[in-house]
Structure to design on (531 residues):
């Protein structure tokens, strides 16, 4: 009987405990579920906080650099337009006034974002812009102002040249290199020239010739292009129709920063096109808008101080603006 | 000691309970993972991504369109006192029409992604004493999670504006009702500098 009674008692108790355990499992299940939710939420918060904390950890240098780049671009545009707009002799003053307006406007706009910004011109180097554009009847040849002299000096006593763009009609250059149009730079003891030949409608030959006391080296390259198209040669950037010509280094061996040189055109009647460049000699020729090529007062180089201040970062830099100078 | 085994008819119940518990756990987990990103706008990591993406998209859009000149062209696409093709008040209520220089970039960056945006143009007024703004695109009030990006654009006196580029800023800007006045004098070289601001948010 003991067995039976034990069995009965135990049996009853066992039944009770089984019911208890079911509840416990249920409760545990629920608790675990809630726990998991809590853990996931917690983890998410941690990641979110970390995300927030690491964001914007830099002092905003990119913003300052962006400002500098934007200002540089805009001032170059202003400089470019001022060359053709300013009245004679005033280009420097007018540029300064324009930059002052620009600085004031930009400072007002930046102030709305809590940035103190300032742009000031700290120095200018006057120069001369010499250019020939298209006439009403089409491209003019490269002769002098009177149109009679094919071999002539475009500019003399030049120290530096920038932004020299030459566009020629590729179908109207001399086929023979020896009599072809050439841009020549020379000073005592050194000369450098670029000759444009090959009157094929879809290609142009560019010959760079470098002469010193020891002799002359010639490098020639043929540049194919779209049929009949005008070809733009950037003499200071060293490109022909956008393609790099590594041997084309403006006035290599002639422009050394110390000695002055002359820029001359040879066989100017053998090419038709436009050109434009800025030299650093303000006294070269008086401003002259009577006929092509035009001569205008210009700015060879401008130094601009740019300041950009946020609560986190003060940025200041003096930028030298002389767009289109040759490398090196 | 010996282990007693008693007859037990609750095996099935136990199994069921176990299954229920397991189900509860799984449901809890699913709920938890879903709950963290209830909407892309609730504060969470995904919301951060959405905001960052909108901000970067707006910034890149401004940078690329400024470089390509489309942004300037959009600012100059202004005729007769309103942006060309805008609504009655001269404001676009969505992505601008196809003739607009910013139509393609805006469609690609925001229009196709269900991102709403406003574009405001701030410019100096009263001879530089005050800064005011004109709306280019107005798609409503931004949410708390909106991202902004801005860029400054210089407008020059020889820039041409109008539906067919028929006017020149320095010559016709004030007569033909261009929204911004010259920053100084007649604005012959530098007309003015404006700031274009995009506010973008997830709809």
């Amino acid at each position: 009987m003991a067995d039976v009674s034990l069995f009965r008692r135990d049996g009853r108790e066992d039944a009770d405990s089984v019911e208890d355990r079911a509840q416990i499992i249920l409760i545990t299940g629920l608790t675990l579920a809630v726990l998991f939710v809590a853990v996931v939420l917690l983890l998410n918060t941690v990641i979110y906080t970390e995300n927030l904390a690491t964001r914007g950890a830099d002092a905003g240098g990119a913003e300052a650099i962006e400002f500098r780049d934007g200002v540089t671009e805009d001032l170059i545009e202003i400089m470019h337009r001022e060359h053709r707009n300013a009245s004679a002799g005033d280009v420097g003053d007018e540029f300064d006034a324009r930059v002052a307006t620009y600085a004031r406007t930009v400072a007002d706009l930046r102030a709305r974002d809590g940035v103190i910004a300032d742009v000031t011109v700290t120095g200018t180097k006057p120069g001369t812009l010499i250019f020939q554009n298209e006439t009403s009847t089409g491209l003019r040849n490269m002769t002098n102002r009177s149109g009679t002299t094919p071999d002539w000096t475009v500019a003399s006593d030049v120290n530096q040249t920038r932004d020299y763009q030459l566009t020629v009609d590729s179908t109207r250059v001399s086929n023979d290199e020896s009599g072809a149009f050439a841009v020549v730079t020379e000073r005592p003891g050194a000369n450098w020239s670029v000759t444009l030949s090959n009157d094929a409608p879809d290609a142009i030959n560019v010959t760079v010739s470098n002469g010193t006391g020891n002799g002359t080296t010639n490098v020639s390259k043929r540049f194919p292009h779209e049929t009949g198209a005008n070809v733009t040669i950037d003499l200071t950037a060293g490109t022909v129709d956008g393609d790099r010509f590594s041997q084309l280094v403006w006035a290599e061996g002639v422009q050394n920063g110390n000695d002055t040189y002359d820029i001359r055109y040879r066989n100017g009647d053998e090419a038709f096109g436009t050109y434009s460049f800025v030299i650093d000699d303000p006294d070269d020729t008086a401003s002259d808008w009577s006929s092509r090529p035009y001569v205008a007062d210009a700015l060879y180089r401008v130094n601009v101080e740019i300041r950009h201040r946020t609560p986190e970062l003060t940025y200041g830099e003096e930028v030298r603006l002389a767009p289109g100078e040759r490398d090196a | 000691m010996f282990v007693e085994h008693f007859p037990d008819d609750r095996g099935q119940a136990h199994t069921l309970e176990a299954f229920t518990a397991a189900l509860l756990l799984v449901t809890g987990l699913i709920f938890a993972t879903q709950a963290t990103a209830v909407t892309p706008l609730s504060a969470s990591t995904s919301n951060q991504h959405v905001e960052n993406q909108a901000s970067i998209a707006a910034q890149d859009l401004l940078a690329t369109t400024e470089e390509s000149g489309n942004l300037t062209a959009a600012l100059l696409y202004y005729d007769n006192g309103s942006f060309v093709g805008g609504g009655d008040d001269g404001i676009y209520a969505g992505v601008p029409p196809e003739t607009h220089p910013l139509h393609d970039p805006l469609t690609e960056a925001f229009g196709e992604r269900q991102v709403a945006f406003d574009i405001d143009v701030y410019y100096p007024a009263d001879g530089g004493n005050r800064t005011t703004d004109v709306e280019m695109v107005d798609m409503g009030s931004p949410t708390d999670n909106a991202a902004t990006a801005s860029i400054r654009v210089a407008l020059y006196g020889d820039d041409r504006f109008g539906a067919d580029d028929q006017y020149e800023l320095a010559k016709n800007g004030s007569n033909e009702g261009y929204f911004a006045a010259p920053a100084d004098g007649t604005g012959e070289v530098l007309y003015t500098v404006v700031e274009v601001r995009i506010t973008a948010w997830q709809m």
User: Anything to note?
Assistant: Chain B touches chain A through 46 residues (CB under 8 Å). The radius of gyration of chain B is 29 Å. Chain B has a mean pLDDT of 85. The longest helix of chain B spans residues 11-35.
